[in-house]
Amino acid sequence: MTSLLDQLACRSNAHASSTRGWEAIAGIGWHEPTRSDLWLANARRVSVVIPAYNVAYCLPAVLNALQDQHHPFEFEVIVVDDASSDNSAAIAAAHPIVTRAVRLPHRMGAATARNLGTAVARGQTVLYLDADMVLPPHVITDIAARASDTTLLVGFRHNLPYDLHQGGRGILAQQPNLAADYRVTWRPPVGRRLLYTGITLTEPLDGRPLDATHDFIDLGYGQRYHDWDLARMVVTALLAVPRATVLDVGGFDPEFDRIGSGMEDTYLGACLIAAGLLVIPLRQAVGFHLDPPDAQQQWQHKLARRPDSVARYWELMRQPAPAGRTREFTAAMTDLLPLCEALR
């Protein structure tokens, strides 16, 4: 059978006609912040799914930013606490913007948390948002106005060290910077094997993945920009997807949480691309990513585990693309939900 890698090699990412068609109807640019008074007759229902593990230092700021969104319609916010040992669950349960909050019976990982949130979501579009991402007030409207059954909308993040934000104060009054995202400005190490593809750069590179690929269009048909391909642009820090397609491909693979760290979003991206979705960036959708106090230690821990995740990813990429898994996915989450604590 055809492998997922082979299917990606057959998929275009020519999304210009989609974005230009939307601009003609909306009367604003694809990358412009969307006014709350813009006519949104075809706006999608949005469910924000937030996996949370020991994020009490930043979760109030993230939820406050969602409460301050100027979106003219209701949207739901679902927080799935991954058995945190701090008071993340209590914060989620008490915050007025949260529609539903549940706590997993034991730590199961972000993939499972997102899967459960997706299963209980009611919106046509699921916005995966990390529990440390603070959004400007226009982002939910940006997404609801542009989302469709055939698009995968990618936002960006501006990392802030803990001493600059201290859980949500100070610099958050400013606007996040698009160029701070590594998919926009990328300066890889020289003379060291890059983890994803295994290539080694021999000269310094002032990389510009977003610009150099014409908003990811040139990454269609399995093309690469050095260590980047289209699936790698799919990052669940801020990512909007059609819920039905996520269910059809079986959601996130929880094995990534058990064997290593990361890559579950990249693999989901590959599956969604194979299913026919176009990956389109939203340059105006940039959030502040609030680093924890021990960010360096956490990063080193993730790097140490990353080779196993990469190996798992390439193993799956050599297999057929998943499809027709909605019933299986729903059954698994239906079995899990009664084991969880309903916080709200």
Characterize the biggest β-sheet. Answer: 9 strands, mixed
What is the count of distinct domains? Answer: 1
Category from helices, strands and their pairing:
alpha/beta
| The top level CATH class name | Alpha Beta
CATH superfamily: Spore Coat Polysaccharide Biosynthesis Protein SpsA, Chain A
- Overall pLDDT confidence: 94
Elements, N to C (H/E)? HHEHEHEHEEHEHHEHHHEHHE
| CATH topology annotation | Spore Coat Polysaccharide Biosynthesis Protein SpsA, Chain A
Number of helices: 13
Number of strands: 9
The CATH architecture: Alpha-Beta Complex
Radius of gyration: 19 Å
Strand-residue proportion? 15-25%
What order do the strands of the largest sheet run in, or round the barrel if closed?
Answer: 5-8-6-7-4-1-2-3-9
**Which percent range fits the helix content?**
25-40%
Helix-strand blueprint:
Elements: H1 4-8, H2 16-26, E1 46-52, H3 59-67, E2 76-81, H4 88-94, E3 100-103, H5 110-120, E4 125-129, E5 133-134, H6 139-146, E6 151-160, H7 162-165, H8 209-212, E7 238-242, H9 243-248, H10 255-259, H11 264-274, E8 278-290, H12 295-317, H13 326-336, E9 341-342
Parallel strand pairs: 1-2, 1-4, 2-3, 6-8
Antiparallel strand pairs: 3-9, 4-7, 5-8, 6-7
Helix pairs in contact: 11-12
